[in-house]
Write a structure and sequence with these properties.
- The complex is a heterodimer of chains A (237) and B (307).
- Chain A has 237 residues and is an alpha/beta fold.
- Chain A has a domain at 3-88 and 157-233: P-loop containing nucleotide triphosphate hydrolases (Rossmann fold, 3-Layer(aba) Sandwich).
- Chain A is built from 10 helices and 10 strands.
- Chain A has helices spanning 43-51, 72-78, 95-102, 109-122, 125-128, 139-151, 169-185, 197-203, 221-226, 228-233, and strands at residues 3-14, 17-28, 32-36, 56-62, 65-66, 80-83, 157-161, 189-193, 206-211, 214-220.
- In chain A, the strands form 2 sheets. Chain A has a 6-stranded mixed sheet with strand order 6-7-8-3-9-10, sandwiched between helices.
- Chain B is mainly alpha-helical and 307 residues long.
- Chain B has a single domain, classed as ABC transporter involved in vitamin B12 uptake, BtuC (Orthogonal Bundle), CATH 1.10.3470.
- Chain B contains 11 helices and 2 strands.
- Chain B has helices spanning 3-8, 13-46, 53-69, 74-97, 105-127, 152-174, 176-186, 198-224, 232-245, 250-270, 281-293; strands at 142-145, 148-151.
- Chain B has a two-stranded antiparallel ribbon with strand order 1-2.
- In chain B, helix 3 (53-69) crosses helix 8 (198-224), helix 6 packs across helix 7 and helix 9 (232-245) packs parallel to helix 11.
- Classes of the chains: A alpha/beta (237), B mainly alpha (307).
- The A-B interface holds A 51-53, 71-73, 76-77, 81-82, 84, 87-88, 90-93, 97, 100-102, 104-105, 133, 135-139, 149-150, 153, 166 and B 176, 179-180, 182-183, 186-187, 189-198, 301, 303-307.
Chain lengths: 237, 307
Amino acid sequence: MTAVLQVHGLRAGYGSIRVLHGIDFEVKEAEIVAFLGANGAGKTTTLRALSGIIPARGAILLDGHDVIAMSADKRAQRGIAHIPQGRGTFVDFTVAENLALGAYLLRDKAAIRSALDYWDDIFPWLAARRNQPAGSLSGGEQQMLAVARALMTKPRILMCDEPSLGLAPTTTQSLFSLLDRLSNERGMAILLVEQNARLTLKIAHRAYVIESGEMKLAGSAAELRDNPLIRQAYLGA
Amino acid sequence: MTIRSFAKLTLVPDMQLFLQQIVEGLASGAIYASLALALVLIYRATRIVNFAQGEMATLSAYFAWQLNQWGMPFWLSLIIVAAVSFVMGALVFRLIMRPVLGASDNTMVVVCIGLFVGFEAVALWFWGADPHAFPRIFPDYAWTIGGVRLTANNLGILATLCLLTVGLSALFRYTRIGLAMRASAAEREKSPLVGIPVENMLMLGWGLAATVGFIAAALIAPSLFLSPPMMVSVVIYALAAATLGGWDSLAGAIVGGLVVGIAESLCATFIGFIGTDLKVGVPFALMAIILLARPQGLFGTSAVIRA
């Protein structure tokens, strides 16, 4: 399998505060890669640096091309989809407008139509809520809408920042099975930042553990599940 | 009832005067509303209250006047300057506002005051302080219905506001670029994630506002005469209109403008001690009342969010 995303020596921070001290990792086609780590370890910062919301140094190779010098909108065009932490939707905009914003880069009407049909199929409730503001949906629905919005354009990689935050366990389950399905059916490369290590390591193929802005551990999900350090720190066993 | 038979009705003089003042108030209110639209467009896009909007509009009006003086047909000079204003607004954003985006409110206020003084100085430098007569856009017809005089100018001003409203609503509601402009204004950090070049959208917003501001200036210049500080009082009314209507609402700017116009005209006529001398106090009084009673303005929104 080819690597969709290869990151080398990624350094980023806010002002004079350096958060990431040069991290390396990669995500391959159809692979779900989890980022585990405590609060403040630099997981969110990594995603923000990758999508270009904050400036970063190092190399971010998307399909072999370095996008580090590109602005955030150019990177989105290249196929980096980022669902930020919390509400990944445009809360004041209707469901239909959120999907239209997701399809902003699509010029082809037929492509937009078929993407809308695809998501209507997966989330039948979308059609009924079309004219409702996204902010009035439940937390789970907002997260589902955020996924649909991010995938309207068929990006190369989907990055989700703590999608399970504030969701009921059953909602988290169905969200994670959706991500699993996307990787299996569409070959989507997914980078998943999560606190919920137990559930994440069930669907992830590989995982990285990040600590104070540095890579601490890397391995297959099975390896990490059995690692005593991980069990103690993240799985509570 | 036809207009002819309606015209035969004789209203009591006070009622006639009242309706006449409503008509005058609506017409001037429509101009305040246009400039308020420009202010709200910029506020929504960049969270900046552009005090200099009126001075930018005055400079545009000078451009149109100058082109007309050089022999260009008036309507053609209006169209050309509408486009020039757009470019001017976009350039002001690109060169002056963009570097300070995200700075403190104090910085923004000072930059806008700088623009205010700068634009007025440019107009003064090139064209001097003497007022010039500005051609009327609409013909000099007038109709009298039930003792109330309706001029083509007043009706034309109201029609222009209607067109502006319909045009802007259609742009923001039905077009891809309008949606992207709204998204950039509302969610500056998330918008690039769907591929929207946010700064270009903000620049378009500033350009659009400058064109709308020029329209307001071209509508009022025939009655105020063209001079560098022409729009200063109009901006005060427009600020009141935007505050009244709510700074994030285009509909609010329009309703606010019309209310301010009518209130000004009625107070000046019917409240003896106000008269024409004190009528500039009316918008301040309205602003004070709305800020006490409903600080977000009549149409200002507080977002509905479920966690």
